[in-house]
């Protein structure tokens, strides 16, 4: 049975080598963040290494996510959506202040991911760039970046297989700019062990 990632909240989990993780968008149009560390905390997800070995900004079925020590961490084995971002840093308190002038506390993926990783006894600082699943970023020929609403429809999911033992944190992104202007909604996940 899928478990809930609360709207604007996070969850942490451990994956054994070979287990698969399905991430589901129950309502559609909601993006989220995924960060992975090796179980001992010595390797972290690397978008740069992933671009080195995959040669594409748009990762989907068959593509792997690599660590900063050049080992495969996760491979996408199914993908209903086919559009995710791996460029943007997780939204943070500072980002909401600098970009949107928010002065009070604002829920953010950086804090969600760090808190969940600490519960797994992983020191998250410095937090790597997250795999921003369902986040839809268009890259213009001039290099300009533009947000578009996520392409995920209600019930869409993607599945990653763990290529090593991992600590994983997930966050339902509260940034409305990444979610077609809508308020944050919950996501869901399930670990497939067979
Ligand atoms: Zn976010």
Describe this entry's structure for a reader:
- With 194 residues, this protein is of the alpha+beta class.
- The chain is built from 3 helices and 12 strands; from the N terminus they run ββββαββααββββββ.
- The strands form 3 sheets. The protein has a 6-stranded antiparallel β-sheet with strand order 1-12-3-10-6-5. It has a 4-stranded antiparallel β-sheet with strand order 2-11-4-7, covered by helices on one side.
- The longest helix has 11 residues.
- The model has no long low-confidence stretch (mean pLDDT 97).
- Bound molecules: zinc ion.
- Zinc ion binds next to loops.
Describe the structure concisely.
By secondary structure, the protein is α+β, with helices and mostly antiparallel strands. Helices cover 14% and strands 33% of the residues.
